[in-house]
Write a structure and sequence with these properties.
This protein has a domain at 1-112. Helix content is 39%, strand content 17%. It contains 12 helices and 11 strands. Bound molecules: iron/sulfur cluster (SF4).
């Protein structure tokens, strides 16, 4: 269906298409999923991060890996379908917005699929956990709506920032908002009473893993009102390697062979490097009084009996 979607709008670089989705709320795959349910209003992502792991979603459609950031599919919002699926989310269960692609990417400014879904959550969800992850300051547009949802549910926003160095961020995440704009959004959300954290994800060996970088991020996060911070080492699936390695050869040629060797046999880094990142993240969290994943949540209805 996606490859037949009508072109909604074409910008110089990006074509937007609409798709009819059979389902708008998915279950989370895997043995120990982080969330019970996932929502991804868009397929493809215009931000074009060099390390993006979600490019495989376009490969499913037989599209070249580059099309992931230039052919963006907006799911048509079917209110009745969304409402039916939302009714299946039980008390205390979690639903993650943007688990694959950014739900506040530029397409959202125009099509407002994420906004319409959140409005429905505000109208009908009670006692669920709502996680959002984004790199976009556009989320600040919905601060009041998220605060309304938060009154009956538990909302957490994870803002991804990998570096405060604007020039480096531009290289790594070429079409995403500047880090300082993302921090402004964190402040707006925190001021609206929403528990917000910073995701330093991914942490890239010898590119963004210096103590100075992590310290600067934690310090800025704390000043912006973030409550927690988490860091995750880089992982590179095959679809991501196709974009990341040529970019690395161009921008950091001295690192290319090391990275290729590290990711030759597995997409995930293991062992000492994982511990190294954990150790550094713990150190900067402790220094700035940040938590690791946000406070424990007890659904409002449950807490009555606690
Ligand atoms: S913002 Fe997320 S989904 Fe979008 S390109 Fe970057 S890593 Fe991929």
């Amino acid at each position: 269906m996606a490859s037949e979607g009508a072109v909604l709008e074409e910008k110089r670089r990006v074509a937007y298409l609409e798709i009819e989705a059979r389902s708008l709320i998915g279950t989370c795959a895997g043995r120990s999923p982080m969330f019970d349910w996932t929502v991804n209003p868009y397929r493809g992502c215009e931000f074009g991060c060099r390390y993006c792991y979600a490019r495989y979603t376009h490969e499913f459609m037989d599209l070249p890996v580059e099309a992931f950031e230039t052919k963006i599919y907006a799911k048509r919002f079917d209110k009745a379908l969304f409402r039916r699926e939302l009714d299946r989310v039980k008390l205390g269960e979690s639903i993650a917005f943007g688990s694959a692609t950014d739900c506040y990417q530029p397409a959202e400014r125009r099509f407002k699929v994420t906004r319409q879904m959140l409005e429905e959550v505000a109208r009908s969800a009670r006692g669920i956990r709502v996680f959002l992850i984004t790199k976009s300051n556009l989320i600040a547009r919905d601060a009041a709506l998220l605060a309304a949802i938060n009154r009956q549910n538990d909302v957490r926003v994870n803002m991804t920032i990998t570096t405060l160095d604007t020039a480096l961020a531009r290289k790594l995440e070429p079409y995403a908002p500047r880090p300082d704009l993302r921090l402004e959004a964190v402040k707006a959300l925190a001021d609206a009473g929403i528990e917000t954290g910073i995701a330093i994800s991914p942490v890239m060996p010898r590119i963004t893993d210096s103590l100075e970088n992590l310290d600067a991020l934690a310090s800025a996060a704390s000043r912006a009102g973030a409550k927690y911070l988490w860091a995750q080492p880089l992982f590179l699936k095959e679809c991501a390697q196709k974009v990341f390695f040529p970019w690395l050869a161009q921008e950091f040629p001295a690192l290319e062979s090391k990275y290729r060797a590290q990711f030759r046999d597995a997409a995930y880094l293991k062992g000492p490097y994982v511990e190294f990142v954990k150790h550094r993240a713990n150190a900067v969290r402790a220094k700035y009084g940040l938590g690791s994943r946000g406070s424990e949540y007890v659904p409002a209805q449950m807490s009555l009996f606690a």
